[in-house]
Amino acid sequence: MTATIRDAARPFSGGALTALLSPAPRLLALGEPTHGVEAFPELRNELFRHLVEHEGYRSIAIESDCLAALVADAYVGDGTGTLDGAMDLGFSHGFGASPANRELLRWMRAYNERRPAPERLRFYGCDAPLEMTGAASPREALTRVHEYLTAARLDLPWSPADLDALLGPDERWTDPCTLMDPARSVGRTPEAGRLRLIADDLGVLLDAHAPDLTEATSPDAFWRASLHARTATGLLRYHAALADAAPGRLGALVSLRDVLMADHLDAVARREARRGPTLVFAHNGHLQRDPSHMEFAGRRLRWWSAGALVSARLGDRYAFAAAAFGSRGADVPGPDTLEGLLSALPHDRCVVDPGRLAAALDRTPPPRVPADHTYAAFDPAATGRTDALVFVREV
Question: What gap in Å lies between CA 377 and CA 13, rounded to an integer?
């Protein structure tokens, strides 16, 4: 270990991380290399507290269902419901069981109790209503935006009964078997095609009447309606891809998910522009600027991540801090890998300057091959496209 590599690292703190970011971003994305390891959401909580108290941040978005997150946001915003209820209903993908996520909501609620409404923290989900084996019915998203426009006295050519007839039973949409069997999907039926046109028209009506609707209801109500419209369109597009029997359907599905994540993050950045930057927390693979890769069902999938898409839109107002770790039980990185080199640093947790690190290395370290397949090891070749690297020696 040379002194130059040691000089690239600092003990982890929020200030050490933000010192590497210039100019200050609108979205600061902190990745995690695997799900289910509490060390990373705990580190996220520590960073978020610093960002709120010292850097003017007023919101956080995590890799969880954007519609479910409205329940968690209502709790932290004005105390609607209970903490238990927010954990049960406000998260997807099992993230409501995370103690760190529970502590995040508890802290945000306590912070907001002492603040006026314009200064309160907001909680967002940046993922679509998708699970590993399927997608939600578009019923909730479509119904909510239809109800909003009806309450605003717009003359709509479709009734709730029309939507119900086209949607049919939700079980047709949520069947997990559609992931591997496109013939079971209803995403390309005539009814689904009609629903896609309706969803598009509802979104256009929102945009066309935005000034009147915002004044007649509220900016927050209009935001929620736009969220539901965007999600309805994205879900129907995803279900159509589920029904596609073409060889590239699996690649299209993962790509569509990240496109919708990018759209949500873009909308969050625009909503929060006057209040402050937003911290984003998701898997490295969703937030990196490089294409994402995955082996699934015997195929090598490649697609552009949400981070790459948002970075193309926001430029240097998007910053990405990747996370990596050293040892996890018997899974110890080789000494010549990047994780092995960083494990020799004198810090249990550190922030690494990618530019200094790259300058200190006389060669690109070989990629780590972790024993745990759920861990996506950091690609040493991507160092130059990362604004910071957060390293945890042992988890």
Answer: 23
Query: Which of 120, 165, 167 has the alpha carbon at shortest distance from 141?
Result: 167
Domain ranges for the chain, please list them. 3-131+263-394, 134-245
pLDDT at 373 over 80: no
- Look-up: residue for tokens 């949500």? 264
Query: How far, in Å, CA of 10 to CA of 356, rounded?
Result: 12
Q: Which residue in this structure is represented by tokens 């690239």?
A: 8
pLDDT(1) > 70: no
Q: What is the DSSP string of 293-309?
A: EEEETTEEEEEE-HHHH
Tokens 């989900």 appear where?
A: 125
User: How many degrees, rounded to 5, is the angle at CA 281 between CA 107 and CA 295?
Assistant: 145
Using CA atoms, how far apart are residues 222 and 67, in angstroms rounded to an integer? 14
- As assigned by CATH, the class of the 3-131+263-394 domain is alpha beta
**pLDDT score of 132:** 67
Distance from chain centroid for Cα 86: 18
What b/e string do you get for 87-116 counting C-beta neighbours within 10 Å, with b at 16 or more?
bebbbbbebbebebbbebbebbbebbeeee
pLDDT digits (tens, 9 = 90+) for 153-212: 999 999 999 999 999 999 999 999 999 999 999 999 999 999 999 999 999 999 999 999
Q: Mean pLDDT across the chain, nearest whole number?
A: 95
CA 115 – CA 248 distance, rounded (Å):
50
How much is the pTM? 0.96
Q: In 3D, which of 55, 47, 49, 53 has the Cα closest to residue 26? A: 55
| Pair of tokens at residue 49 | 């507290």
Q: What's residue 183's pLDDT?
A: 96
Name the token pair of 374.
């759920």
Taking CA 98 as the corner, what is the angle to CA 24 and CA 225, rounded to the nearest 5 degrees? 60
- Of 324, 287, 332, the C-alpha closest to 305 is 287
Sign of CA dihedral 146, 151, 155, 158: positive
- Least confident piece of the model among 70-84, 259-273, 357-371: 357-371
Q: Which residues contact 140 (CB under 8 A, 6 or more apart)?
A: 67, 129, 228
Closest to 67 in 3D by CA, of 146, 149, 112, 123 = 123
Structure token pair of residue 110: 């306590």
Distance CA 322, CA 378 (A): 8
